[in-house]
Amino acid sequence: ARRRAAWLGGMIGSTQSVLIERPGDRGHTPNFADIRCDALTVGSIQEVSITGMTETHLIATARPALEQAL
Fold first, then answer.
1. Are strands 26-28 and 58-62 parallel, antiparallel or unpaired?
2. What is the three-class DSSP state of 16?
C-alpha cells in the first residue's frame, strides 16, 4: 500500500495522456494508473492535470484544448 501511494503521489502535479473509458469520468494513464476526472468523451485520449489522489486512484482535471495545442 505504501509503494502504491508513493507511485500515485509522485504523479500529482504532472500532465498525463489518459484513455477515457466508460462512463466517461475515468480512465488510465500510459503506465496504467487509474484516474477519475470530469466527464469527457469515451474512447478519446485526453491531456489531464493530476491534482490529487485517493488510496486507489488519481484525481485529474482536463486541460483546456488551447493548452493541449501549445
1. unpaired
2. strand
Q: 0.90 cut: is pTM over it?
A: no
Helix, strand, coil % in the chain, rounded to nearest 5:
20, 40, 45
- With cut-offs at 50, 70 and 90, classify the pLDDT of residue 69: low
Strands 34-36, 58-62: parallel, antiparallel or unpaired by DSSP? parallel
β-pairing verdict for 15-21 and 45-53 = antiparallel
Residue recorded with cell 496504467: 32
15-21/26-28 β-pairing: antiparallel
Q: pLDDT value at position 27?
A: 97
